[in-house]
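Journal club side-thread
Mid-discussion, someone asked how the predicted structure for our own chain would compare to the paper's figures. Pasting it here so we can look after the session.
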Amino acid sequence: MFSDIARIIIKAGDGGNGAVTFHREKYVAAGGPDGGDGGKGGNVIFIADKNINTLLDFKYKKKYIAQNGENGKDANRNGKNGTDLMIRVPVGTLVKDAESGLVICDLKEDGESFLVAKGGVGGWGNSHFATATRQTPKFAKSGMPGDEREVALELKLIADVGLLGFPNVGKSTFLSIVSDARPKIANYHFTTLVPNLGVVQMGDGGGFVIADIPGIIEGAHEGIGLGHAFLRHVERTRLLLHIVDVSGVEGRNPVEDFKTINKELALYSPKLAEKPQIILANKSDIPTFDENFAAFQAEMEGMGYKVFSISAATKKGIREVLNYTYETLSKMPVDDTDEDYEWFDLEAAREKEDKIVVTHEEGRFVVEGMRVRKIVGSTNFDDYESLQYFQRSLIKCGVIKMLEEAGAKEGDTVSIYGVEFDFVP
């Protein structure tokens, strides 16, 4: 079963907490602090794998969580780092921020990888906080949470050549005889419900990848029929083979069919309409073909297109088409530039999450931000020295000033990640 879109939640591992421990040894009456640091949380990394060709697995599992870092230990032993989570996706997968729709990464090469969610850093053990005046610190830093976000996965097939045309014009039959693909073939509309990939082997050891795109009909760019779901797969191709039924057995006008498909390409993406096309006038084995071919060929060539008369059923003209296609591809530069995407800035998103925000809600002032969350997690509220550290940290990072600017007065309630206290300016 094929699937080319999915939405999942990814969560990087949290950093381990720093340890609060003191050296204990026989005949040593007052050992110093020796709490180790917490380990770093595991990252979430997407990697393109040529052996995967669908996003179907992501339909059944929706949340992916990397391993947390271990907490610090005594004797200055640090916790182990969490293992990175490698999520394998098909080559050609876009990873997008689900909320904004902006592209985080575009994995177009086998083995290409991208770190999408960063693991949280581990907290410091209490040994870091020992000073000449604070010789027994009873507090340590907690580990930071790892990144968490919902992402949308979108697969765009990687192929040199795309097959275009209305349903039932012979695209699947053509693909089956020129490549190793085995698409479902029958004499009714929308036989092809998923894109099919095949490799065309040429005699000199070379070849090219060809994709059969499900039938595109009028209104496809608006979601009518199957075209809207699969037009994205045409974007990766370098050359288009446009198959047209010129026999007229279904009462269709081949010129109008050709124009309709190209109109849908242009409405979906102007860049698609500019891709070079080779026209394959199919079903030449049907007697009515000859009545229509001359006029069709004249009009297509008048528009600057190369036209081949073929019969996918009898293989007539197929070798000439493949040779011309292969020769054309060999003269075309490989477009390895990034597509015209709007990119998501991961670092800017992390900075936004770290920004301190003060709001007034239901009679209390609420302080939020990754930085203050880290301060709260590092504080032992039962220890006087730790409370002093907490207060100095709030002053240093500007929280006290921000509260005053927000209108906080002495005695007002301030809430920071579950900890409430009276405001003292």
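Post-session note: Residues 181-192, 218-227 have pLDDT under 50 and may be disordered.
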